[in-house]
Fold this sequence. Notes:
Blueprint: E1 2-11, H1 16-26, E2 31-38, E3 43-52, H2 55-66, E4 71-77
Amino acid sequence: MTTHTLFTRVYNHTGFLVRFASVLTRLNVNIKSFTVISDDDEIATVSFTFESEDNNQVANVRRNLKKQLDILSVGYVK
Length: 78
């Protein structure tokens, strides 16, 4: 298994974390680490690490997170 780290810039709204976790749950992603840094009252940076044997799963996670209204961007750390 390979460890992957994604980071997102998000609107810091109530209930965001529940929706974020719901996306990952639907995709059967087990989070190894999770960090939220609030830049200000409106924007936060979320980074998380997970393991996957399949690069298609990483692409699928990125694609599904980008569809969420509160997410501004999704990046990948190599």
